């Protein structure tokens, strides 16, 4: 399931094998030999706080990122938006904006989008263009100053360790053999989809990136390959660093935020990520013993919240 | 947002003028902690922080979790004459391997390094290099001056990691001082544009030999001389031994030397050590041992690895 048309531009300077690339799925430039230990070590430095996620400034920043993100014309890629919101959350966990009223949260969002674009090599990002519909436009110098302030707050840890970084680990270590590459790829794509959609949900901030990743993958596997779900769940549960209680809670929050879970897979098929909308079958939805999310699936409201741009990101 | 760097740090002395700019020993006024302050020559134009610098510094941040890599403590954004200046703040260590070896090399206390110390340092070096390579990062300029030593704890740490691409033209010193070629791998000297982890392992081999010899293994003073030093000891490579070597940009016909005995240049080194050294000093980079494999070499069997 192709939810993204994401391709990095070709490396202009082909003379060098290593150019300090950054990829959400691999914060360390290339596949690491011992990634999981490093990632677990690092994730604590990268998790936003719950109070920051609940702030008014965050809500307004989310609204702006969401508007930009779903406006095809502005062409901000989902992963740039994702990383930008991660920066917003981490910034607000460390600092307070002097003024929580607009346009300051927008300035924060703008700076974070700019930084996220630099990390992911999006050369076409234009500060002027992206805020052209706003009544007040920030000049480049102000945005650059804000960028530096944001980086200071992040302590220059711009290689965010997000749930994306744990996807490959869980799939390679915990997914039951035999692993069919197309099936595993489909699960991963669906998990990415869910992660992108769930990120704005305030309650997601309560969970560590690794737990969020595991929850998204289990939810995805439930839809894509339900027969393998019990073995996959058992594999994830066997990871010593996965707290099963947190995993269950996170699964519920994720399901509610994305409108998925038993009997809901069909409703979730149209994601904001795929603007064109892939209509997917719900065949896997009812035949599973997956219980996460059944208690708190707040009806159609939760589903609708994830259905489209732009206000739903609040 | 921008600080005045002298408000936060007391500059104590200039400790180096390396490839990447001036380095000061300084003290954090708030905590008293000694730090190494590196002023970068980063240019911030209307585009703000350059993307490469952003990606590179953030990578340094992730990597400096290993105790075998000099820790990046902070990145300070200061202002000088209204222009933003970036300082990298590293933990301070009192000596480097070059200065450390000097004590053994000459003067009243000149003597061979204890064999266990060489083994211990080499293992830590391999561990640090394995950490970098495991995360996709090449050092590219490993040399004794870039290996800092904590004498009290007996710890060796890699410094100046990766600081190259965003800050300078690689391999050129901005102060025009002579950049040492002694640890440079043959493929780099021959103008290879695509090189990999082997460049660092070559340097590790040179450093290993230097600890055993107390003097540099290949002290060349030009790129050509450097290659001649290498070929004189290890033999001039042929296309059979090193497929593709004659395609490299700076390849030309060299005098034909036969390989010499490696044990003769490191006479005090035990046979297992010579074997490991020979695996590090393979001319063809694809034959060179990796850092992670080196750590498993029998040379280290007598070392208590649990201490690391």
UniProtKB/TrEMBL annotation, chain A:
Entry's Gene Ontology BP terms: cell division; G1/S transition of mitotic cell cycle
Pfam families, alphabetized: Cyclin_C (PF02984), Cyclin_N (PF00134)
Origin: domain of life: Eukaryota
Domain Cyclin-like span(s) in chain numbering: 63-152
Biased composition annotated in UniProt, kind: Polar residues: 286-295
Location of region: Disordered: 286-314
Keyword Cell division: yes
Molecular function terms from GO: cyclin-dependent protein serine/threonine kinase regulator activity
Keyword Cell division among record annotations: yes
GO CC annotation, single: nucleus
Record key words, sorted: Cell cycle, Cell division, Cyclin
UniProt-listed PANTHER family: CYCLINS
Family membership: Belongs to the cyclin family. Cyclin D subfamily.
Protein name per UniProt: Cyclin-like domain-containing protein
TrEMBL record, chain B:
Residue sites binding ATP per the record: 38
SMART domains: S_TKc
GO MF, any single term: cyclin-dependent protein serine/threonine kinase activity
Keywords, sorted A to Z: ATP-binding, Kinase, Nucleotide-binding, Phosphoprotein, Serine/threonine-protein kinase, Transferase
Pfam families in alphabetical order: Pkinase (PF00069)
Domain Protein kinase: 9-300
Biological processes, Gene Ontology terms: G1/S transition of mitotic cell cycle; regulation of G2/M transition of mitotic cell cycle; regulation of gene expression; signal transduction
Gene Ontology, cellular component aspect: cyclin-dependent protein kinase holoenzyme complex; cytoplasm; nucleus
Coiled coil residues, start to end: none
The reaction(s) this protein catalyses: L-threonyl-[protein] + ATP = O-phospho-L-threonyl-[protein] + ADP + H(+); L-seryl-[protein] + ATP = O-phospho-L-seryl-[protein] + ADP + H(+); [DNA-directed RNA polymerase] + ATP = phospho-[DNA-directed RNA polymerase] + ADP + H(+)
Family as reported in the entry's similarity comment: Belongs to the protein kinase superfamily. CMGC Ser/Thr protein kinase family. CDC2/CDKX subfamily.
Protein name: Cyclin-dependent kinase-like protein
């Amino acid at each position: 399931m192709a939810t993204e048309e994401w391709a990095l531009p070709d490396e202009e300077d082909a003379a060098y094998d290593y150019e300090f690339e950054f990829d959400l799925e691999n914060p360390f430039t290339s596949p690491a030999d011992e990634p999981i230990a490093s990632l677990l070590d690092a994730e604590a430095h990268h998790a936003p706080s719950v109070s920051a996620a609940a702030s008014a400034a965050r809500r307004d920043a989310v609204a702006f990122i969401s508007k930009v993100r779903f406006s095809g014309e502005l062409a901000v890629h989902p992963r740039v938006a994702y990383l930008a919101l991660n920066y917003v959350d981490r910034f607000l966990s460390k600092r307070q904006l002097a003024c929580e009223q607009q346009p300051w949260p927008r300035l924060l969002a703008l700076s974070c989008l700019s930084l996220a674009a630099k990390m992911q090599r999006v050369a076409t990002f234009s500060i002027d263009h992206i805020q052209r519909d706003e009544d007040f436009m920030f000049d480049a110098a102000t945005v650059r100053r804000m960028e530096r302030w944001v980086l200071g707050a992040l302590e220059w840890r711009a290689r965010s360790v997000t749930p994306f970084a744990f996807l490959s680990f869980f799939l390679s270590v915990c997914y039951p053999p035999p692993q069919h590459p197309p099936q595993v790829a489909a699960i991963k794509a669906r998990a990415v989809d869910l992660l992108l959609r769930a990120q704005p949900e305030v309650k997601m901030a309560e969970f560590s990136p690794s737990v969020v990743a595991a929850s998204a993958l289990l939810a995805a596997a439930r839809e894509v390959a339900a027969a393998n779900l019990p073995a996959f769940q058992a594999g994830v549960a066997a990871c010593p660093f996965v707290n099963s209680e947190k995993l269950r809670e996170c699964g519920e929050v994720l399901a509610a935020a994305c409108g998925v879970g038993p009997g809901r897979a069909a409703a979730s098929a149209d994601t904001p990520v795929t603007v064109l909308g892939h209509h997917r079958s719900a065949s896997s939805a009812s035949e599973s013993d997956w219980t996460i999310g059944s208690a708190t699936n707040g009806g159609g409201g939760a589903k609708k919240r994830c259905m489209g741009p732009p206000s739903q990101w609040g | 947002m921008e600080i005045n760097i002298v408000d936060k740090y007391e500059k104590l002395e200039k400790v180096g003028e390396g490839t990447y700019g001036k380095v000061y020993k300084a003290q954090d006024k708030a905590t008293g902690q000694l730090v190494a302050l590196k002023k970068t020559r980063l240019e911030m134009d209307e585009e703000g922080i350059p993307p490469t610098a952003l990606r590179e510094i953030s990578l340094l941040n992730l990597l400096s979790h290993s105790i075998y890599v000099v820790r990046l403590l902070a990145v300070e954004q200061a202002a000088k004459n209204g222009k933003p200046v970036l300082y990298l703040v590293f933990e301070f260590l009192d000596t480097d391997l070059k200065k450390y070896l000097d004590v053994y090399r000459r003067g009243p206390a000149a003597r061979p390094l204890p064999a266990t110390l060489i083994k211990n340092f080499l293992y830590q070096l391999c561990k640090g290099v394995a950490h970098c390579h495991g995360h996709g990062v090449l050092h590219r300029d490993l040399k004794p001056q870039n290996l800092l030593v904590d004498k009290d704890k007996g710890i060796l740490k890699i410094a100046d990691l990766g600081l190259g691409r965003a800050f300078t033209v690689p391999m050129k010193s901005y102060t025009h001082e002579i950049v040492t070629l002694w640890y440079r791998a043959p493929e780099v000297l021959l103008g290879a544009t695509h090189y990999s982890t082997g460049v660092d392992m070559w340097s590790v081999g040179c450093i290993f030999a230097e600890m055993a010899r107390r003097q540099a293994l290949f002290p060349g003073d030009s790129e050509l001389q450097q290659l001649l030093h290498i070929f004189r000891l290890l033999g001039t490579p042929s296309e059979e031994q090193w497929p593709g070597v004659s395609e490299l940009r700076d390849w030309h016909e060299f005098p034909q030397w036969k390989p010499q005995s490696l044990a003769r240049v490191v006479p005090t080194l035990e046979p297992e050590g010579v074997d490991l050294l020979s695996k590090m000093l393979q001319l063809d980079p694809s034959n060179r041992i990796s850092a992670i494999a080196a750590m498993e070499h029998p040379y280290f069997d007598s070392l208590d690895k649990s201490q690391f």
